Structures are given as C-alpha cells and as structure tokens.
Amino acid sequence: MFYRILKSPPGYASEEQYMVCAYKSFDYDSFEVSMTNDKGSIFASTLDDARRMIPSHACRLPFEPQAQFLELWEE
What we know:
The protein is mainly β. The protein has one helix spanning about 45-50; strands at about 1-5, 20-25, 30-35, 45, 60, 70-75.
C-alpha cells in the first residue's frame, strides 16, 4: 500500500491544509481510500498531523515534492 500526503486545493480552511490518500500501487488510478484522523476528518492542519494518519509501520520513500503531492510512504 502507498500513502501520499497531498496539499489541499486552494480555498480550504487552515485546519484543512493536508490530506492523506491510500493507493494499492504507485499508479494514481489505484486509489483506495482517504485516510482519516482520530476525529474522522480526512483533513489535517499540519504535516505532522497528516503523518499521524499514516500507519506507524509505513516507511517514507525518497521523493521530490510536486505541485500538491508532498510526500510518499509505503507499507
């Protein structure tokens, strides 16, 4: 499973700046689900909050941020 940390599109509130999406493979078409925080929201206000939405056993992969796509993780 791959996890991508994405910057929310313009216009979202300050507490809705990041999202984490899970994918079956590296391909964008393999989208599975948007991860949620402990309050059930798909948004995070900080990168650290977004990282907490990723399973603890996942590893961050080397990746250069591109547009809204900030970090890549793999389980």
